[in-house]
Design a protein that fits this description.
CATH superfamily of the largest domain: NAD(P)-binding Rossmann-like Domain
Helix content: 40-55%
CATH class of the largest domain: Alpha Beta
Order of helices and strands: EHEEEHEHEEHEHHHHHH
Structural class: alpha/beta
Shape: elongated
CATH topology of the largest domain: Rossmann fold
CATH architecture of the largest domain: 3-Layer(aba) Sandwich
Oligomer: single chain
Strand content: 5-15%
Strand order of the largest sheet: 3-2-1-4-5-6-7-8
Number of helices: 10
Largest sheet: 8 strands, mixed
């Protein structure tokens, strides 16, 4: 969906994820009505200051500001202090979007009022290069148009999927939210194993990094499923077959990953309680 805001957008927090979103909104022209940013440290050097005005606190915002969307991009542990400061914007026609992990819609309804239109979202760190994936969940007060607007805003940093069941946000956090760390660990492990097998460390690092990146792009862009791609590269009795006999043993990589996802999902539920 392409969309253009008719009223200003208010971004609360302009760290790595916030600045990635702001850059996407600027390049797409979605925020042509202007952006106000509440960030004590100002705008990052990577952000075009044209069309974005940074203030150090909510108290410095114009008294007559009427934002169409308020986006919370601060750390979850700051939300109880930060969110109530923006209750004055909770009026019909204003949408609140949060990307804070483990912070439920109910938390925001308590801080902003039960009538506030809210979308809870979970992006991941590849958003910094426009390659993220976000899952968004609107509350009952968000209209169909507002939910679509939130999806359009979040699509500025990659792909966006919308759900209506908030319970899904915990396994989403475990899979895609935390998922980049699992991939980075795999790159580390592959490189370390290559070096242990006799490769120079810098060569092992590069081989592991580009192999994982290329395999991901192949799976993303090609028509075959990951399972088919794995089978295509596995010749019976060959080197890949030998390695997969280890990785797919019982318990193997699938069982270990299932255990990891379960642990992260449970932790997300704990943080949300």
């Amino acid at each position: 969906m392409t969309a253009k805001l008719e009223r200003p957008l208010l971004l609360v927090g302009c760290g790595k994820m916030g600045s990635a979103m702001l850059s996407g909104w600027q390049s797409s022209g979605m925020a042509a009505a202007g952006v106000y940013v509440v960030e004590p440290y100002g705008l990052p050097d990577t952000i075009d200051p044209a069309g974005a005005q940074a203030v150090s606190s909510d108290e410095a915002l114009p008294d007559d500001l009427d934002p169409e969307v308020v986006v919370f991009a601060v750390k979850p542990q700051q939300m109880d202090e930060v969110a109530p400061r923006y209750k004055r914007f909770a009026a019909p026609g204003t949408l609140f979007v949060s990307i804070a992990a483990g912070t439920t819609i109910g938390v925001f309804e308590n801080h902003l009022g039960a009538s506030a239109a809210i979308v809870r979202a979970m992006p991941n760190t590849p958003a910094a290069i426009g390659q993220g994936i976000t899952v968004a969940c609107p509350n009952a007060r968000a209209t169909k148009d507002q939910a679509a607007l939130a999806e359009a805003l979040l699509s500025a940093i990659g792909e966006c999927i919308s759900v209506t069941d908030e319970a899904l946000m915990d396994p989403v956090t475990a899979l895609s939210g935390s998922g980049p760390a699992y991939v980075f660990l795999m790159i580390e492990a592959m490189a370390a194993a290559g070096a242990a097998a006799g490769l120079p460390q810098d060569m092992a690092d590069r081989l592991a990094l580009v192999t994982v990146a290329g395999a991901g792009q192949l799976a993303l862009q090609g028509p075959e499923t990951p399972s088919t791609l794995r089978e295509n590269v596995t010749s019976p009795g060959g080197t890949t077959f030998a390695a997969l006999q280890v990785l797919m043993a019982d318990p193997g990589l699938k069982a270990l990953m299932a255990k990891a996802i379960d642990a992260a999902t449970e932790r997300s539920r704990e943080l949300a309680s």
